[in-house]
C-alpha cells in the first residue's frame, strides 16, 4: 500500500502506511495515548522499541512531547491500528540527530500500534473526573479566567439522550446562576476562543448526589457535554485600574455577593466576596476618603464572608474571617457574635462564651448574646458531666483491672496448705522417710520426729 502524506505542507515529511486497520474514532489533541513502537533507520538498524521493554509508551498527543511526526501520525490512527510512519529529518531529529543512535539528517521509520487513549484530564485532582476530547481546535493563546464574560453553545447528554441544547452567556465562576455545572466551568478555563470539545464529566462535577429531576438525570450520574466557546471578554486587569476604579468594582461585587446570599447561593456569594477582597488587597495607595471607604468595605466583606461560612458549616473559615474584622475593629459586635457561633460550631463552648460575654460588654441589651451564654453554660455543664462519667468509668475499669491483676498474682503464689507443699511430700520429711499412719490420715500435719512417736526432735 502506498504511503499517505500526512504532513501539513504536503512535502512527504510524514508518510503513513497502514499495516492493520483500526476501529472507531481517532484521538484528539491533549489525549493521553498508549502505543507500542519499534524505530529503525532506513537500513533496518533498530534503535529503540517499547516492545523490547515490554511496556507501552504513553504521551500527551499534540503537546510537543514527542517528535512532530508522531504528533501528526498518531492523531490520524484508530484504536488497534498498526502503521508504518516514515519521518523526514525535519519532522524527527533534524540536522543534529540524537547521538549515538540516530545520526544527523536521518529519515526514520516507526512501526506504531495505537493501543488506546484517554481524554485530556482537566480535573483539579487529576482523577479523570473531567475529560476533554477536542473536536475543533481554538484560536489565539488566551484562556478565559474567573470573571470573564463567556458566550458558549452547549449540548448536554445522558445515556446518549440530549437533555439540553442552548446558547448561554454568563460570568465565568458564576455559572450556577444559569444552570451551568461546575465541570463545564472548570473545563472552560482551558478552552481557546472558538474551540469545540466533548467533555465527559463525573457526577461530583455535574449534578452530584442530587441528580436533576427536570432533565430526568438520577443521582450520582456521569454526563457528557459538547461545548463550543464562541467568544469571551476578559475582565480588566486589576493592576491597570486606578484606586477609585478598584473601589467601584469592589462595591459592585459586594452588591452582587449580597444578592447571591439573599438567594441562598452561599458558595457563589463566597466567590464574589473573595473577589471584593482581591480588589482591595492589590498593592495600591488608597488615600483620604478612599482609604476610609476601602477599610469599611474590607470590614463588611469579612463580616459577610463569616456569615456565609457559618451557613455552609465552614466554622474555622468563619472564625478566621471574624478575626480579620476584629483586627480592624476589636469591639465589633457582629464579629464577636459570629466568632462565638463559629466556636460553638467547633464544639468549643468554653471559648465561645467569652466572645458572647464581650458582646454583652459592647451592647448590654443584646438579648440574643445573653441566650447564647445560657446555651454555652448548658453545654459546658453537659460536657463536664459527660467527662465526669467518662473518667468515673475509666477509674472503675482501672480498679477492676488492678483487682484482676492482684488475683492473678495470688493465684501464681504457692499455697502452703495444698498441693505439693500442703500435702507434704516425702522429700520434705526429715531424712526423706515414709509417711506415718497418722500423717497419712492427716496429710496437712508433718511429724517432726523420725519414727512417728510422740517424741519430738530438735525442739
Automatic annotation (TrEMBL):
<keyword id="KW-0697">Rotamase</keyword>
<keyword id="KW-0413">Isomerase</keyword>
<feature type="repeat" description="TPR">
    <location>
        <begin position="333"/>
        <end position="366"/>
    </location>
</feature>
<dbReference type="InterPro" id="IPR050754">
    <property type="entry name" value="FKBP4/5/8-like"/>
</dbReference>
<feature type="compositionally biased region" description="Basic and acidic residues">
    <location>
        <begin position="426"/>
        <end position="442"/>
    </location>
</feature>
<dbReference type="Pfam" id="PF00254">
    <property type="entry name" value="FKBP_C"/>
</dbReference>
<feature type="compositionally biased region" description="Basic and acidic residues">
    <location>
        <begin position="403"/>
        <end position="415"/>
    </location>
</feature>
<feature type="domain" description="PPIase FKBP-type">
    <location>
        <begin position="147"/>
        <end position="233"/>
    </location>
</feature>
<feature type="region of interest" description="Disordered">
    <location>
        <begin position="403"/>
        <end position="444"/>
    </location>
</feature>
<feature type="domain" description="PPIase FKBP-type">
    <location>
        <begin position="30"/>
        <end position="118"/>
    </location>
</feature>
<dbReference type="GO" id="GO:0003755">
    <property type="term" value="F:peptidyl-prolyl cis-trans isomerase activity"/>
</dbReference>
<keyword id="KW-0802">TPR repeat</keyword>
<dbReference type="InterPro" id="IPR019734">
    <property type="entry name" value="TPR_rpt"/>
</dbReference>
<dbReference type="InterPro" id="IPR001179">
    <property type="entry name" value="PPIase_FKBP_dom"/>
</dbReference>
<dbReference type="Pfam" id="PF13181">
    <property type="entry name" value="TPR_8"/>
</dbReference>
<keyword id="KW-0677">Repeat</keyword>
<dbReference type="InterPro" id="IPR046357">
    <property type="entry name" value="PPIase_dom_sf"/>
</dbReference>
<protein>
    <recommendedName>
        <fullName>peptidylprolyl isomerase</fullName>
        <ecNumber>5.2.1.8</ecNumber>
    </recommendedName>
</protein>
<dbReference type="InterPro" id="IPR011990">
    <property type="entry name" value="TPR-like_helical_dom_sf"/>
</dbReference>
Amino acid at each position: 500500500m502506498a504511503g499517505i502524506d500526512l504532513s501539513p505542507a504536503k512535502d512527504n515529511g510524514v508518510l503513513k502506511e497502514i499495516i492493520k486497520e483500526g476501529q472507531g474514532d481517532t484521538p484528539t489533541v491533549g489525549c493521553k495515548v498508549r502505543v507500542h513502537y519499534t524505530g529503525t533507520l532506513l537500513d533496518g538498524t533498530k534503535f529503540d522499541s517499547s516492545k523490547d521493554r515490554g511496556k507501552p509508551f504513553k504521551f500527551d498527543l499534540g503537546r510537543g512531547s514527542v517528535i512532530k511526526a508522531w504528533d501528526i501520525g498518531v492523531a490520524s490512527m484508530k484504536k488497534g491500528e498498526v502503521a508504518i510512519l516514515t519521518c523526514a529529518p525535519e519532522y524527527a531529529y533534524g540536522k543534529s540527530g540524537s547521538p549515538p543512535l540516530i545520526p544527523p539528517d536521518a529519515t526514520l521509520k516507526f512501526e506504531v500500534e495505537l493501543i488506546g487513549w484517554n481524554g485530556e484530564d482537566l480535573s483539579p485532582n487529576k482523577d479523570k473526573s473531567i475529560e476533554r476530547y477536542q473536536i475543533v481546535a481554538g484560536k489565539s493563546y488566551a484562556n478565559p479566567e474567573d470573571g470573564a464574560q463567556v458566550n458558549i453553545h452547549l449540548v448536554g447528554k445522558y445515556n446518549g439522550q440530549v437533555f439540553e441544547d442552548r446558547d448561554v452567556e454568563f460570568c465565568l465562576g458564576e455559572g450556577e446562576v444559569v444552570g451551568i455545572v461546575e465541570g463545564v466551568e472548570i473545563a472552560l478555563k482551558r478552552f481557546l476562543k472558538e474551540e469545540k470539545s466533548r467533555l465527559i464529566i463525573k457526577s461530583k462535577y455535574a449534578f452530584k448526589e442530587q441528580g436533576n429531576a427536570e432533565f430526568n438525570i438520577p443521582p450520582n450520574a456521569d454526563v457528557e457535554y459538547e461545548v463550543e466557546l464562541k467568544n469571551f471578554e476578559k475582565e480588566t486587569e486589576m493592576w491597570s485600574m486606578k484606586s477609585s476604579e478598584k473601589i467601584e468594582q469592589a462595591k459592585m461585587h459586594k452588591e452582587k455577593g449580597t444578592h447571591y446570599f439573599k438567594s441562598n447561593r452561599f458558595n457563589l456569594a463566597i466567590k464574589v466576596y473573595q473577589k471584593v477582597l482581591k480588589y482591595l488587597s492589590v498593592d495600591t495607595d488608597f488615600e483620604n476618603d478612599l482609604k476610609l471607604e476601602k477599610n469599611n468595605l474590607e470590614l463588611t466583606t469579612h463580616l459577610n464572608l463569616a456569615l456565609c461560612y457559618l451557613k455552609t458549616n465552614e466554622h474555622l473559615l468563619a472564625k478566621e474571617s471574624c478575626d480579620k474584622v476584629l483586627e480592624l475593629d476589636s469591639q465589633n459586635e457582629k464579629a464577636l457574635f459570629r466568632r462565638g457561633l463559629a466556636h460553638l460550631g467547633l464544639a468549643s463552648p468554653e471559648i465561645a462564651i467569652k466572645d458572647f460575654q464581650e458582646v454583652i460588654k459592647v451592647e448590654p441589651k443584646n438579648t440574643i448574646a445573653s441566650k447564647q451564654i445560657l446555651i454555652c453554660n448548658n453545654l459546658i455543664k453537659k460536657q463536664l458531666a459527660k467527662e465526669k462519667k467518662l473518667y468515673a468509668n475509666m477509674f472503675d475499669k482501672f480498679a477492676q483491672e488492678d483487682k484482676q491483676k492482684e488475683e492473678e498474682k495470688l493465684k501464681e503464689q504457692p499455697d502452703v496448705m495444698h498441693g505439693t507443699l500442703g500435702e507434704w511430700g516425702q522429700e520434705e520429711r526429715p531424712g526423706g522417710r515414709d509417711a506415718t499412719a497418722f500423717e497419712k490420715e492427716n496429710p496437712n500435719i508433718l511429724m517432726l520426729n523420725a519414727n512417728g512417736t510422740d517424741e519430738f526432735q530438735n525442739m
